[in-house]
Amino acid sequence: MQNLLNSRNLFEKNLTCIELGSGCGLLGLVMCSLGFETTLTDLADVVDNVLKENVRRNLLILNQCQNLENIQHKALVKVLDWTSQLSSDFNPPYDYIVATDCIYSLDLIPYFAKCLYDLSSDKSVIICGIERRDPIVIDSFLNECKKNYSFNISKISVNKLKKILKGINDLNFENQMLVEIYHLKKINV
Length: 189
Fold this sequence. Notes:
Blueprint: E1 16-20, H1 26-33, E2 37-42, H2 44-65, E3 75-79, E4 96-100, H3 109-119, E5 125-131, H4 135-147, E6 151-155, H5 158-164, H6 173-176, E7 179-186
Parallel strand pairs: 1-2, 1-4, 2-3, 4-5
Antiparallel strand pairs: 5-7, 6-7
Helix pairs in contact: 3-4
């Protein structure tokens, strides 16, 4: 993940990150371990039944492991329903916005794209990992972001991913590259 985010000095103080659709919170916890003040989000039932406790336990372990370096990792868990108005609990813009496997339904695309827009600035780095289940859904998401929100979008190439993941022998990119990673940039208009 650190290699995908190399567009800024990751060791600056007080960089913020928000993970959308966190599920169990793996990506958000990775971002937290890299030093970001991270907000992990999902729907209320996921937050209450999975995310809140998982983040609490892992944050405790992470902070115990880092205690020797006197680093205190920060993570918050919040309910975020993309179909609702963004509440005042959130503090946009975030420096980094990450999401994986959130684009799976045509109905959610306008809400997700608006959420990305509302949480970002032209300086935000937005990374979306999408499993290629349905090309129509992915193409609709990309078109929505370009057309209605003027995001600049670039796909992270398979060659770049190969370089980043060099040394992992179990990966057969040509036959199993079902995940696409996109970098979105809000255009300042």
